[in-house]
């Protein structure tokens, strides 16, 4: 069955770079896009970006200068990297396949 | 970017009553192909969002027929008939006509 699981550090210092991994199973990254969505504590959902089945990417313009999404199809992994982190980047980060399959999310806190 | 604006519910909602959640988009989500590019999600406490409705009015697999979606190109309604305890959470609308995908701020449903 389709599954997605996010992993990464729970704590990142301000101004540092966040690196997250989304490991998928039950489908191929060459057949489906994978998206990243984040949710600050107690707040709503923000679409961050996606990597398409062909490998091209789309980003939220508000994050584009800091955000990079890539993948390793052989490992069924999608990567998110975002630099210059600030406290307002504290959030749960989800990876999704389309609208109907979501990972459990990973909580990232930006704090010194 | 397309702005999604959600209405509030007169919480708490008595169990067994119906509830309607509104969502408005700043641009028509009706495509020339006749489809309306709107999703509805429910995020239960502590969980990832779950897709309820896509194409404005099509229920996702396994979703109760107590949930129904309707609307026009810019004004949308999610109706929940006979609200139950499992319906408690935050409801989000999302447009998928354009990138960046954008969500409404969410509408909280509490049960009486």
Layout of secondary structure:
The complex is a heterodimer of chains A (112) and B (112).
Chain A: E1 3-7, E2 11-12, E3 18-25, E4 34-39, E5 46-51, E6 57-59, E7 67-72, E8 77-82, E9 91-97, E10 101-102, E11 106-110
Parallel strand pairs in A: 2-11
Antiparallel strand pairs in A: 1-3, 3-8, 4-5, 4-9, 5-6, 7-8, 9-10, 9-11
Chain B: E1 4-6, E2 19-25, E3 38-43, E4 50-54, E5 58-59, E6 67-71, E7 75-80, E8 89-95, E9 102-103, E10 107-109
Antiparallel strand pairs in B: 1-2, 2-7, 3-4, 3-8, 4-5, 6-7, 8-9, 8-10
Largest sheet of chain A: 7 strands, mixed
Biggest sheet layout of chain B: 6 strands, antiparallel
Number of strands of chain A: 11
Helix fraction bin of chain A = under 10%
N/C terminus separation of chain B:
37 Å
Number of strands of chain B: 10
- Extract low-pLDDT stretches of chain A: none
Radius of gyration of chain A: 13 Å
Discrete helix count of chain A? 0
Structural class of chain B: mainly beta
Shape of chain B: globular
Give the percentage of residues in beta strands of chain A: over 45%
**Average of pLDDT of chain A:** 97
Number of helices of chain B: 0
Helix content of chain B: under 10%
Oligomerization: heterodimer
pLDDT average of chain B, as an integer? 96
Describe this structure in words.
The complex is a heterodimer of chains A (112) and B (112). Chain A is mostly beta strands and 112 residues long. Chain A has strands spanning 3-7, 11-12, 18-25, 34-39, 46-51, 57-59, 67-72, 77-82, 91-97, 101-102, 106-110. The N and C termini of chain A lie far apart (39 Å). Chain B has 112 residues and is an all-beta fold. In chain B, the strands form two sheets. In chain B, strands 3, 4, 5, 8, 9 and 10 form a six-stranded antiparallel β-sheet that branches. In chain B, strands 1-2-7-6 form a four-stranded antiparallel β-sheet, with no helix packed on it. The N and C termini of chain B lie far apart (37 Å). Classes of the chains: A mainly beta (112), B mainly beta (112). The A-B interface holds A 35, 44-47, 58-62, 94, 99-100, 102-105 and B 1, 39, 41, 43, 48-51, 54, 60-61, 92, 94, 96, 99-106.
